[in-house]
UniProtKB/TrEMBL annotation:
Pfam families: CinA (PF02464). SUPFAM superfamilies: CinA-like. Gene3D superfamilies: CinA-like. NCBIfam families: PncC_domain (TIGR00199). It comes from Pseudoxanthomonas daejeonensis. This is Damage-inducible protein CinA. Residues 13-163 form the CinA C-terminal domain. It comes from the Bacteria.
Length: 165
């Protein structure tokens, strides 16, 4: 998978913003490994207040629990980087916002923090529309910390676009 450039991410965010505006949807982001990069890429677009509701950066277990309602037992049993946590994050983002569409990301950007079963580059992304079912997908990105994060932002934006009519 090619690593998206700043220009490519901006183009992707701009196109997504136009679609969100056209269908009158509002977006919320819940981000761990990207540290707000998805929200930044979207709010770099002039007029994003028409379709961007809010973004939450939730690195710690406590933040995931307090801001998004991720259950402590989910984190204990599956860890922060898991399908279960990503789904609870995306669902919690919708509950705790006025948005109608959500994306959540949790992963290991590196250089440390990986393990044999969850190596650096492992990222779970979840998407959900209000009233619908969450969809989550695991990715195994290559490259350094920035490369993993860039690819995560690109895939997160692509997945949001797939949710829209």
């Amino acid at each position: 998978m090619p690593i998206p450039s700043d220009a490519q991410l901006r183009e992707q965010a701009d196109a997504l913003g136009k679609r969100l505006r056209a269908v009158r949807e509002h977006l919320v982001t819940a981000e761990s490994c990207t540290g707000g990069w998805i929200a930044k890429s979207l709010t770099d677009i002039a007029g994003s207040s028409d379709w961007f509701d809010c973004g939450m950066v939730v690195y710690s277990y406590e933040a995931k629990q307090g801001l998004l309602g991720v259950r402590p037992q989910t984190l204990e049993e599956h860890g922060a980087v898991s399908r279960e946590t990503a789904i609870e994050m995306v669902s919690g983002a919708l509950v705790h916002s006025g948005a109608s569409v959500a994306v959540a990301v949790t992963g290991i950007a590196g250089p440390g923090g990986g393990s044999e079963d969850k190596p650096v580059g492992t990222v779970w992304i979840a998407w959900k529309r209000r009233g619908g079912y969450a969809r989550a997908q695991v990715f195994h990105f290559e490259g350094d910390r920035e490369a993993v994060r860039r690819q995560t932002v690109g895939q997160a934006l692509a997945g949001i676009a797939e949710l829209l009519p």
